[in-house]
Amino acid sequence: MVSRITVVAPSSTANLGPGFDVFGLAVNAFYDEITLTKKKTKGVRIITKDDIPTNPDKNTAGLVVKNMIKKFKTRDGIEIKIKKNIPPGYGMGSSAASAAAAAVAFDKLYQLRLDGNSLVEFAGLGEKASAGSIHYDNVAASVLGGFVIVKTNPLEIIKIDPPTNLRMCIAVPKLKVPKKKTKVSRSVIPKKVSFKDSITNLSNATAIVVGFMNKDLELIGRSIKDVIVEPSRQYMIPGFAKVKENALKAGALGVTISGAGPSVIAFSKSSADLKKIGVAMTKGFESAKTKCQTIMCKPSIGVSIKK
Ligand code: HSE
Question: Which protein residues touch ligand 1 with a CB less than 6 Å away?
Answer without folding.
Answer: 14-15, 20-21, 91, 135, 137-138, 182, 186, 259-260
